Automatic annotation (TrEMBL):
<feature type="binding site">
    <location>
        <position position="169"/>
    </location>
    <ligand>
        <name>Mg(2+)</name>
    </ligand>
</feature>
<keyword id="KW-0460">Magnesium</keyword>
<dbReference type="InterPro" id="IPR006074">
    <property type="entry name" value="GTP1-OBG_CS"/>
</dbReference>
<dbReference type="InterPro" id="IPR045086">
    <property type="entry name" value="OBG_GTPase"/>
</dbReference>
<feature type="domain" description="Obg">
    <location>
        <begin position="1"/>
        <end position="155"/>
    </location>
</feature>
<feature type="binding site">
    <location>
        <begin position="271"/>
        <end position="274"/>
    </location>
    <ligand>
        <name>GTP</name>
    </ligand>
</feature>
<comment type="function">
    <text>An essential GTPase which binds GTP, GDP and possibly (p)ppGpp with moderate affinity, with high nucleotide exchange rates and a fairly low GTP hydrolysis rate. Plays a role in control of the cell cycle, stress response, ribosome biogenesis and in those bacteria that undergo differentiation, in morphogenesis control.</text>
</comment>
<feature type="domain" description="OBG-type G">
    <location>
        <begin position="156"/>
        <end position="318"/>
    </location>
</feature>
<feature type="binding site">
    <location>
        <position position="189"/>
    </location>
    <ligand>
        <name>Mg(2+)</name>
    </ligand>
</feature>
<dbReference type="InterPro" id="IPR006169">
    <property type="entry name" value="GTP1_OBG_dom"/>
</dbReference>
<feature type="binding site">
    <location>
        <begin position="299"/>
        <end position="301"/>
    </location>
    <ligand>
        <name>GTP</name>
    </ligand>
</feature>
<comment type="similarity">
    <text>Belongs to the TRAFAC class OBG-HflX-like GTPase superfamily. OBG GTPase family.</text>
</comment>
<dbReference type="InterPro" id="IPR014100">
    <property type="entry name" value="GTP-bd_Obg/CgtA"/>
</dbReference>
<feature type="binding site">
    <location>
        <begin position="204"/>
        <end position="207"/>
    </location>
    <ligand>
        <name>GTP</name>
    </ligand>
</feature>
<dbReference type="InterPro" id="IPR006073">
    <property type="entry name" value="GTP-bd"/>
</dbReference>
<dbReference type="InterPro" id="IPR036726">
    <property type="entry name" value="GTP1_OBG_dom_sf"/>
</dbReference>
<dbReference type="InterPro" id="IPR031167">
    <property type="entry name" value="G_OBG"/>
</dbReference>
Amino acid sequence: MIIDDVVIKLKAGDGGKGMAVFSRTKGLKGPTGGNGGNGGSIFFEGISDLTALRQFRFRKDIKADRGENGKSSLNDGHNAEDLTLFVPVGTVCKNLTTQKEIEITKVGQRELVAKGGRGGRGNFLFRSSTNTSPTQFEEGKDGQFFEFQLQLKMIADVGFIGFPNVGKSSLLNELTASKSKVANYTFTTLEPNLGAYYDLILADIPGLIEGASLGKGLGIKFLKHIERTKVLFHFISADSENHFLDYQKVRQELKAYNEVLLEKPEYIFLSKSDIVAKEKIAEIVDDFKKQNKEIIPISIIDLASLEKIKKLLNQIAKEKQTPLFIENIVDN
């Protein structure tokens, strides 16, 4: 189960207390109190595991260790270890205390979110020409405390969308090392699945149904993931009763949720094309052409159609390095 919205409380470690002590060595009876160690800070770091927020399901209050107190003989207390919390790439981390937001957009991105308190000074640092035997020392400073809301909004280069059971997971498995569950029934995919095709991140978004923007079926939970994809691969099953109507219904759900989704580059694929006659495929392609839409017949058991998809993905990967518009390079 993916946890995609959680509120947690973070408390960085307090600084250790400075020490007030004097040497007992004859002739060297000055102050020798060491400084306290710094408290541990808390960081967020991005990883590719979409389920990483699950760790916060029952772990809501998180504290870093405090610094060690100062010691005698000018020995400072040890600094506490920093605490790193791993969150999925695509997580928006909102500080509910300051209202500032941090977005984790890549693996390895590391952000300081709560700074540990500085250790207090020992009495050795308070000595002066007028105060050779200071008894002053400092308590450690408090570590920062914040409340954070973590919201996962998945980031992918290409999002696979369409009604349930149209072959999205099968294609993802074929193109990548992903092991998405595949079966011949509705809602096989209940969580988004990610796969890597060279430098591209492909996302298999659970199937939408009519009324998804109002919460029906798997609802808006996954529409927000589509919001963060850059290019849409829209799949329509060849065994559908009304192919263009299926296309329109999914587009309507995208529009109802956020019209900006309609502006994303989109490629339409007629999946499972091996299960219908060639004449029927030609008829479907012609129907889409009449609506000024191009639909590309594909099948995961047809190497030629898979090569078309790979060619398109290679072009998208190339364009990823530049701000140029992605051209449709798939031949009819």
